[in-house]
Amino acid sequence: MDKKIRIFLVEDHTILREGLRALLTAEPNFEIIGEAADGREAVRFVEKQVPDLILMDLSMPRMTGMDAIREIKKRYPATKIIALTVHKTEEYLWTTLQAGADGYVLKDATHEELMLAIQNVLKGKTYLSPGVSEKVIEGYLEGKESQIPSSTLGLLSQREREVLKLIAEGYKNKEIAADLCISLKTVEKHRANLMKKLDLHNAAALTAYAIEQGLV
């Protein structure tokens, strides 16, 4: 009997996660080994049980899917990750692929497309949803790194992005410190660095920026 593909689901919307589970458990060669509702929870799970494949939502609370992909791939490069997203922009695609994703599938994809994406990624190929513009896909396949759009988000460290996301979600400095297990002083330093790097000078501006960048 062939060994089953061990799959981990990361999606903050319960109904979508349950839908994915129902689709995938119907496949005899797949085994769902766990689920998570945010990126940090996902990273912690993978440290205990390393899956063969992760289906990763990109827009989640606390830690984004993109940051989770980056962290997981750094430690477990052999684990395949397919990003699931509503975002069709070139910047989102490039940033996700740079983070280490093996596939990029839009959430309006059919069951058949998701299965095709999984098959391709497990074979070591990169799968990009046809819903992403052909121009973007051609640029990626030809390796035109110069086509990657520049973004001020790229100026931020992973920790700064985590702090920014929590600020935008309404967390206070003390709550951020507790959530990230860092000192209040360190949070204040990160907050000051964010304002300086982004040239934004209050929480409302930081929140608007985070929403614009798809972090929340």
Key phrases:
alpha/beta, Rossmann fold, 2 domains, Arc Repressor Mutant, subunit A, 6 strands, six-stranded parallel beta sheet, 10 helices, globular, 50% helix, 216 residues
Tally of domains: 2
CA gyration radius, whole angstroms: 18 Å
- What value does the average pLDDT take? 85
Which H/E pattern describes the elements? EHEHEHEHEHEHHHHH
For the record, the CATH architecture of the largest domain stands as: 3-Layer(aba) Sandwich
Alpha plus pi helix count: 10
Layout of strands and helices, then pairs:
Elements lengths: L4 E6 L3 H12 L4 E7 L2 H10 L4 E5 L7 H11 L4 E6 L4 H10 L3 E4 L4 H12 L4 E2 L5 H8 L16 H11 L4 H8 L3 H15 L4 H10 L4
Parallel strand pairs: 1-2, 1-3, 3-4, 4-5, 5-6
Helix pairs in contact: 2-3, 3-4, 7-9, 7-10, 8-9
Structure description:
- The chain is α/β, with parallel strands linked by helices.
- The protein has 2 domains: about 5-145, Rossmann fold, CATH 3.40.50.2300; about 150-210, Arc Repressor Mutant, subunit A (Orthogonal Bundle), CATH 1.10.10.
- About 50% of the residues lie in helices and about 15% in strands.
- The chain has helices at about 15-25, 40-50, 65-75, 90-100, 110-120, 135-140, 160-170, 175-180, 185-200, 205-210; strands at about 5-10, 30-35, 55, 80-85, 105, 125-130.
- The chain has a 6-stranded parallel sheet with strand order 2-1-3-4-5-6, sandwiched between helices.
- Strand 5 (about 105), helix 5 and strand 6 form a beta-alpha-beta unit.
- Helix 2 (about 40-50) packs parallel to helix 3 (about 65-75).
- The mean pLDDT is about 85.
